[in-house]
Amino acid sequence: MKKILILTLIFGLIGLFGSLGIQVARAVTTDLDVTMTAGSLSISNSTATTASYTGKTVSTAEQTDTATIGDATHTNTTGIEVTDLRGTGAGWSTVMTVTNLTTLATQKTLAGSNNTVTFTGTYDGLDGVIDPNGTFKVEITTGGAVGTAVFKWWDPAGNLTSTVTTAASVVLSNGITVNFDATTYAVDDSWSAGVDVFPYNYNTTKGLTATPSVIYANSGVTTGVTAGSAELMAGTGATSDAKTVMTATVNNGFGDYFIDMGLSQTIHPNSLSGSYTSTATITVS
Amino acid sequence: MHKFMLLKKRIKILLVGLLGFFALAGFCCAISYGGLGIYPNEREWDEKNSLTKSWFIYTLKPGEVEEAKVNVVNQSDQSVEVKIYPVDAVTTKDGAFAPQSEDREKVDVGAWITMPVSELSLKPNETKAVDFTIKVPENAEVGDHMGAIIVQSKEAPEAEKGTAMKVASRVGARIYLTVPGEIIKELEFKDFNWKMEEGQVVFYLTLANGGNVRISPKGEIEIKDESENAVDKIKITEREVFPKDTIVLPTKWEKTIVGKFTALATVNYGTEKNLIKKLSFEVKSAQKQQKTFPEAGLIVGGIIILLIIFFVIRKKFGFKLVRK
């Protein structure tokens, strides 16, 4: 039985190599070519649509809160995904900007009986950290229905704007809008809403520090693909300056790459309680 | 007999479970893969320059108008509504290409572009070509001007409850536009510094572009010990310095070791002249070099092979480890 099996194996191998030889002999005159169509450079954050901070309790002392865009495992397909299927070797860069982490508190009626005014929008945080916390304040100066009544308002920095006619919605400043429900308003009716900010650039050493993780190549190699360094976000506007997330040099970065981003945010003392939100925009080009 | 049946049943369950697991894993990969893509339309490609398949590269005189086309692709298996818009480009402070935010004022290439559409609907795996026009102003400065066409999902990300950062992503096709004239290519190597970061030396090269074209500096840092023996040579990170801009280029010394050293940085940017700076530094403690995965794999694999050889020889020749 054993001998039969060995003989079968030997004959099988002879047959295999023999037929391969015939195929090679037949193929020598055949031209082989293939055209690879270029794909595109793309980005996806479907596995990292939000980064949740751990949450802190309001304190008299400064604190630090942390979050991660992606997850703590840096060798998986969770996180920011960059795919280069262009096949041109042009290289690419991935950068990130952020907005300030801000909150808008529910309005308080300071005077009058109408609880029909609300404040909406996303505060841009450009007034900086104000202690005690900043507030938007609205006060009726001429009574009447919506569209007739007139009001004045103060921004968190205390700047006054007078003689504004009421409407269903009136844009104030810094991303905040005041909304008047249909009713009759009386002189001196007044409302306010607190706002607070954990700025991305609190000062030159505090704010939001973004730390890119190591890079995971789901397809391709990491040669020439490098992560940016840990950096305090910089800038003066509502949106920060761009920070390097990862880059691929010329003739590198073919494939599919994942990276996570660690976030460490300074929380100032005596802040407003509530949920704070910001937006990170990741761009690949 | 009963035990055999039980074992057979367990093997069946295991096989079905494994099949289910791999099928699910395949499904998970399928939904996580794919996003928005953008690249120059085929008619923009110049076969002599493969980079034109990735970026828009133009030389246009003041007053000249270029009609162009960009392809936008939805690589996901879901329909998507997208915004498309032009922006100016800058670099990050370490020299990575960075298209500006949508809300930033446009003063350069971004302001010279007009697009007939600002929003698109894309079906799963659909590609659409979008026209745009670049009109270079009469008073445009000679030299390089950078920008990008950006595509981004219209749907704003929803924040989870509590304090959170919402994450949005964009993809851009770069635009490198040169206005011809007297080209000035001038780079200054302003500073050469170092810092210890996570147990590794990171060199920082401050480079200022005094010219009117972008520069991609190349070069290396040679590290020598106290006896002037070469210890290591590292390539500087490849980045860009835009006209009238300054970047601080970080370059890691991956094999940082303890000791006193000198580092000689040589930077060149396509001219005959090399820019050189030197510094002395001392490393008092360094991160231990970790074995990389392939190295560790080789060691483990080697041990296993040696063990197999040992046991095969032992069985074949009947060696026994006998204590006398």
Q: Would you write up a description of this structure?
A:
The complex is a heterodimer of chains A (285) and B (324). Chain A is mainly beta. Chain A folds into three domains: 1-33; 41-100 and 200-284; 102-196, no CATH class. Chain A is built from one helix and 24 strands. Chain A has one helix at 2-27; strands at 41-44, 50-52, 63-69, 80-84, 92-98, 101-104, 108-111, 117-121, 134-142, 144-145, 150-154, 160-165, 169-171, 176-180, 184-185, 190-198, 208-212, 216-219, 225-227, 231-232, 243-248, 255-259, 261-267, 277-284. In chain A, the strands form six sheets. In chain A, strands 6, 7, 9, 11, 12 and 16 form a six-stranded antiparallel β-sheet that branches. Chain B has 324 residues and is of the alpha+beta class. Chain B folds into two domains: 33-156 and 170-179, Immunoglobulin-like; 187-283, Immunoglobulin-like. Helices cover 19% and strands 43% of the residues of chain B. The radius of gyration of chain B is 29 Å and the shape is extended. Residues 16-33 and 290-294 of chain B have low confidence and may be disordered. Strand 2 of chain A pairs antiparallel with strand 10 of chain B, so a sheet runs across the interface.
What value does the average pLDDT of chain A take?
A: 90
CA-CA gap between termini of chain A: 66 Å
Low-confidence stretches of chain B: 16-33, 290-294
* Shape descriptor of chain B: extended
Spatial extent as radius of gyration of chain A: 31 Å
The overall strand count of chain A is 24
Fraction of residues of chain A in helices?
Answer: under 10%
CATH class of the largest domain in chain B: Mainly Beta
Q: Sketch the topology of chain B as an H/E string, one letter per element.
A: HEEEEEHEEEEEEEEEEEEH
| Beta-strand residue percentage of chain A | 35-45%
Give the CATH H-level superfamily of the largest domain in chain B. Immunoglobulins
Going by helix content, strand content and strand pairing, the class of chain A is mainly beta
